[in-house]
From TrEMBL:
Gene3D superfamilies tied to this protein: 2,3-Dihydroxybiphenyl 1,2-Dioxygenase, domain 1
Record key words, sorted: Metal-binding
UniProt domain VOC: residue ranges: 4-127
Alphabetized GO MF terms: metal ion binding
UniProt protein name: Glyoxylase I family protein
Annotated organism of origin: Leeuwenhoekiella marinoflava
Source organism phylogeny: Bacteria, Pseudomonadati, Bacteroidota, Flavobacteriia, Flavobacteriales
InterPro entries, A to Z: Fosfomycin_Res_Enzymes (IPR051332), Glyas_Bleomycin-R_OHBP_Dase (IPR029068), Glyas_Fos-R_dOase_dom (IPR004360), VOC_core (IPR037523), YwkD-like_dom (IPR037478)
Amino acid sequence: MLKHIHHIAIICSDYKKSKKFYTEVLGLTIITETFREARNSYKLDLALNGEYRIELFSFPNPPERTSRPEACGLRHLAFATDDIEAAVKQLNQKGVKTELIRVDALTGKRFTFFADPDELPLELYEI
């Protein structure tokens, strides 16, 4: 029945700031950017390594949501990397604070967390 995950939708509070973060800091590429006048809202379709992955939305005055990794609901969005130390260094050089690199007790893989401009929890996971 299910084939794969089609996309992840994120609603941001500051469209320009989040667009810059996801494209310039994380390096996702823009597929399509649409302004929906009736909703006073942007929809930005983003790809990672050529594959459609994230829809970034802006809405006027979106309600706040608890976003810590342990809050009820979607926990976090994880990005795979081959070299976690290099990825952390790149993020830090772009002004993104990351937690200390930890080791997953179940898999033995290294990972760390950081946040987007709205403090949504994001993870780097070394594969």
